[in-house]
Amino acid sequence: MTRFSPFEHSLWYATAPAAPTTHPLASQVDADVCVVGAGYTGLTTALELARQGVSVAVLEAQEAGFGGSGRNAGHCTPTFTHYSLPELRRMLGEPWAERLIARQTQANQRVSAMIERYDIQCEWRQNGYIQAAAYPSAIREIEKKVREYNAVGAGTRVVDAREAERITGSPRFYGGWFHPAGGHLNPLGYARGLARAVLEEGGAVYTGSAVKRVEKQGGRWRVATDRGAVLADKVIFATGAYTVDGWPRLEQSFKIMRVFVAATQPLSAGERRAILPQNTTIHDGRGDIYVYKYNAEGRIVASMFPMGRRGRDLPHTHRVMSDRLKWLHPQINPSLRWDYLWFGELDMQQRTIPRLYELAPGVVALTGLSGRGVPTGSMLGGILAEWALGTAENELALRMERLHRAPFWMSFGPRLTLRYYRGRDWLRSKMQRAALPPHA
């Protein structure tokens, strides 16, 4: 079995524009707000605050985009996963549900606006997203999604098998859900661009500055690193799955789930005319998720979750990825290869909805993005900025909670759910005489 490094073969690190020049914190500085974590959530929070004249300092243990913000697959889909909108309303209650639904379903507008305003070079393409129907009965679920999302202004539509093939180039789908706001980008390029924007707006970003402790000093908070400290009125933790130290038990508020992303060699011009000809993002419609799209070089970038040998054994992982893609697109070159493969980690919550915690008066944390990275992280910055600016708790789009430990079964529950979905899809495909992909 061939083992491989989780991060050294990232396409994004090979192709993203250089990060802005930053340095570790080496003294004590003052700020109105200290943000811990330079991923999408922390950076968009800092950007929003800096634009409004708030003094803000960002502390990052590694570099901007080091965590999930720089490791994800680059898909940007402003939807919720796992739960329907009616289920969210029942689970969250009002007015919280409608507020969060509005933020999430409009999140790509926020992403697009920031990219345009700050000229962020991140391969942004907004050509739509298709969640495919992998078997005939899936169309009924898609029709429900269209009604639910269109009721809140999303403008999505059902596509039949012919249109799905025209958009995707795959003959394997029975139709699909087309979301015109869907997009994709180079996620590390986006994170680095956000960091540059924070600096342009007068904010401070200190990299290589891991937070060791937060303690009260007078009426303010002292956020200490090895070589310096930020003295701030308010503190925001936005470290997600890469939370280490900083605040007691914060890392216990979620459970880690790994995901891997791989990128092929650049496809030929002829292949690109036949495969994903409209440069959309594709979800193949199975619970054992396979999502893919192009990068700017014409490489297909695809993501899956580890399962069994997949994600541990490199040749087996490449074979599974290739077999699925060749099945979806028989016209692809048989000599397909994967030039890059890397891992990221997700901070999973039972409800797959981000959680906003009050750690102490003037100190909050937000964790549990559960894999909804680019649009979700980007819109959460607006919520955290509103809190920092003094918006009342009962007017925020997330309910403020007390910190609590994620249930123990979340360590294995999401993986068991994936296996359940895999078995469900196999049974439905068999019963409906739909073709099954390899390794299904």
Automatic annotation (TrEMBL):
Entry keyword set: Oxidoreductase
Residues covered by the FAD dependent oxidoreductase domain: 32-387
GO molecular function: oxidoreductase activity
Source organism superkingdom: Bacteria
GO cellular component annotations of the record: cytoplasm
Signal peptide: none
Protein name listed in UniProt: FAD-dependent oxidoreductase
Organism expressing this protein natively: Acerihabitans arboris
